[in-house]
Amino acid sequence: MTYLQASKYLESFINYEKIHSYRYKDQLGLKRIKGFLRLLGNPQKGIRFIHVAGTKGKGSTCAFIAYILKASGFKVGLYTSPHLADFRERIRIMPGKRQDEFEGMISRSQLKRTLKKLKPFIEEYNRSSLYGRLTLFEVYTALAIAYFREKKVDFAVLETGLGGRLDATNAVSALVSVITPISYEHTDKLGKSLKKIAFEKAGIIKGREKAVISAPQGKEVIGVIRKRCSGLGVKFLSPNKYQKLKIKLCGAHQLINANVAKMAILALRACGIYIPDSCINKGLFSAVWPGRCEVLGKQPQIIIDGAQNVSSARAIKRAVKDRFRYKKLILVLGISKDKDIKGVCSQLHSLADKVILTKADSPRGLNPEILAKFFKNKESYIAPRVNEAKALSMRLAGKDDLILVTGSLFVVGEYKYGRAKFN
Q1: Which CATH number do you get for residue 168?
Q2: Number of other residues whose CB lies within 10 A of the CB of residue 240
Q3: CA distances from 378 to 315, 348, 349, 381, 403 (A)
Q4: How far apart are CA 257 and CA 247, in angstroms?
Q5: Alpha-carbon span 70 to 77, nearest angstrom
Q6: 241 CA to centre of own chain
Q7: Cβ atoms 245, 262 nearer than 8 A
Q8: Are residues 229 and 97 in the same domain?
Q9: Across the 423 residues of the chain, what is the mean pLDDT of every consecutive 10-residue run?
């Protein structure tokens, strides 16, 4: 199997990340992934997992946790989604060789070798399954777990893909489960209320954890999480104040993520795993997470951030106002169809002097013409493709201006890396 053949094989599976409309509770669930893992011999057993769900800050929190564990001398598997430029970014083992900003990203040879081993089991499962064919996310999740087991990681940090209760990553049992800030997202699938969304996210809590860590939440959300923990007899922890931790990631919201990550690491002490404060501090400071309030250049300043919901848009707006100085702000914005379009636009509207509306090369990308109605009183432009938006932003920006690229990780990935690397 060549790498091209491996890529084509993966592309043959249904990818719900590219589908806007589907029946969430009918199409997703744990029966397929659990059955497939059993067929593989349950490679998840024997791996110590830290499982992270939430609306915003999941990836950053996973990164903070992974870098702390790495600084403590552990071999750490990291599984996150979505990716910025290359699907392989989702599977990493640290410490590892640096490949762009993605340390320890699974190599092409390792990916094709692992997939080649799994392929006979995939075909066998799909022939006999009573629950339908495996999805791409299920295959890739199983591949990551099998790869982590083969490489004998000490810990694996998993980020949920969608929700939590029915997410493929929920087939594992975690030492510690983490809930990052919860707000409205995927309301067509997770539910129209915060309580329903919190119920789906809190579904990663299974009663076998040593502790559940939650970021501070609204009253109705925290009530759902506490009830779940109480019913299962799991210890619940949440920081009641934030320490001033030294981190490179910018924005007050990243300080929240760092504090939650630190509390998750401290919870490991209940398992007899003592990680000294010096390693915690070193890991937090060394953590990088591309595409999140990331500075690409100066004169003009270019900031990229994958904010895709109202709370994340509010956070990047605050970070830009608090941290950066500029003459005019050129907003490059592209949003996916299933997001709170009006809410995101309303958060960013006052920030922008000029607006470039665009669309990622994804079926879920929203037509930029629809976005235009939210910026009628702004100097605005339509760029059908992100590379056109990038060229236009550089023409419009003076050396004292700031370009903010946001609304979608797909847009951010294309703006930074270009379409050629985006796969």
Answers
A1: 3.40.1190.10
A2: 6
A3: 22, 12, 9, 9, 15
A4: 10
A5: 10
A6: 25
A7: yes
A8: yes
A9: 94 82 71 98 97 96 98 98 93 82 93 98 96 95 99 98 95 98 86 94 96 96 97 94 90 93 95 95 96 92 94 94 96 92 96 97 91 94 97 97 96 85 42
What tokens appear for 177 in the block? 């489960």
The span from the CA of 134 to the CA of 125, in Å, is 8
**Shared-domain flag, residues 308 and 391:** yes
Structural domain boundaries enclosing 393: 294-417
231 and 352 assigned to the same domain: no
CATH number at residue 373: 3.90.190.20
What is the structure's pLDDT at 21?
63
Task: Dig out the tokens for 163 from the structure.
Answer: 């929700």
Nearest to 386, CA basis, from 354, 353, 357, 423:
357
Is the peptide bond preceding residue 95 cis, with omega within 30 degrees of 0?
yes
Give phi and psi for 164, each to the nearest 5.
175, -50
**What are the structure tokens assigned to 3, written together?**
């790498």
Q: In what order do the strands lie in the sheet with 48-53?
A: 91-94, 76-79, 155-159, 48-53, 174-179, 211-214, 236-237
CA dist., res. 73 & res. 303, Å (int): 33
